[in-house]
Fold:
Amino acid sequence: MAEKKIDIFDTTLRDGEQVPGCKLNTEEKIEVALALEELGVDIIEAGFPISSPGDFASVEAISKVIKNATVCGLTRSVQKDIEVAAEALKHAVRPRIHTGIGSSDIHIKHKFNTTREAILERAAKATKLARNLVSDVEFFCEDAGRADNAFLARLVETVIAAGATVVNIPDTTGYCLPHQYGEKIAYLVNNVSNIDKAIISCHCHNDLGLATANSIAGIMNGARQIECTINGLGERAGNTSLEEVVMIIKKHHALGFYTNINTTQLNPLSRLVSDTMRMPVQPNKAIVGSNAFAHSSGIHQDGFLKEATTYEIMTPEEVGAETSKIVLTARSGRSALAYRFQKLGHQFNRNDIDTLYQQFLAVADTKKEVEDADLNILAQNYLHVAV
Ligand code: KIV
Ligand code: ZN
Structure:
């Protein structure tokens, strides 16, 4: 079976930058955009041009430097937004306007105080206007996760007929369960007559910790684009994490998908984004957390030291991380202790290690982690006594 390409749409600079305190200036955004292009993302959502003069300037500047990836600007279904986005994108080699409107009854009633029919009209008008300005138009059906599927299908059909090249089905509030999100995509595949004329995109939020699982359910049911951010940054609990979906697709060949991402750049880019946005990565974060390749319990360490694949499903090199770590805590075993002594240049036999292990445990019970300096002291004291 031929593998299907999944387009990676990175929105670190738009949804990711909506995180309180994560604002970047234009130079920082250009640096991140160039690194994203180097990583191999297909689409970079560079910002929301009408939202501020600074965001307009950033989208314009990114459009000038990016040569391979599509550069995308967000708009509401509002004429002025769309015109301003087209202006900001005018230097882009591959410009895309990302316009859209609420699709759930909750949004239609409370945000827009309008009717489903009026939403269809506004959506068609916005899409046509955007298509007159650029040839690549993505339409987002906001809060699609909670929208009625029959109405969602009508909306999707309407915007494709109006010229949308990509239809985005956001689970804006992170509400769906994976099977529900997957069924929603399958429903659109089966009930929208012109669906073959557009790419379906997944845009999932992480309010229940399901953004990555939902995105994977989306592609398993016919979507061909995933919207995601580095380190899973984004509004509230964040968006689907780029590094997670890319590595799931890579590790699970049997799913039949591939991306163009150079996975060895994942950790360097994670650090760049974390540093420029001043947003630390949680240590246990999949793929890019500082503990993602750290082994601390005796049982795991023993297995890992015998054969790395016993406890690692990917190598740190594959994702550009530092080498795997054997961390010494009160839960560690003799083999880990011997390994760490050996790395420090101390060769001890089994009996030595048995004695040293008791001394090590006494230290480990008083500290969260036993460091090289502690090990050197243990070794020196032991050798001194032995002499
Ligand atoms: O979460 C969402 O619905 C969005 C849209 C603007 C695409 O971010
Ligand atoms: Zn979003």
Remarks:
- Residues 15, 170, 172, 203, 205, 235, 239 surround zinc ion (ligand 2) (CB under 6 Å).
- The domain at 4-277 is CATH 3.20.20.70 (TIM Barrel).
